């Protein structure tokens, strides 16, 4: 999955979750105090989940950057070796 697809998926999941949670809370037959408590709990839960997703995305990004950096380093060393061999001939 490419980075734009991953972003779109995460964004869609978050928006869908918020809409679904809001609809479930507002359509449930509860008192105002219970409803506010449920909204507070859901908000806290979604906030924790969002932090977790962002942390995972950051970790994946760091791993990908590390991999790309190592790949570039390997490619650069190979090119330098080729250039050195050509100069030596």
TrEMBL record:
Region feature (Disordered): 61-89
InterPro entries assigned to the protein according to its UniProt record, in alphabetical order: Desiccation-related_membrane (IPR052928), YtxH (IPR024623)
Basic and acidic residues bias (residue ranges): 74-89
Domain of life: Bacteria
Record's protein name: YtxH domain-containing protein
Species this chain originates from: Cohnella terricola
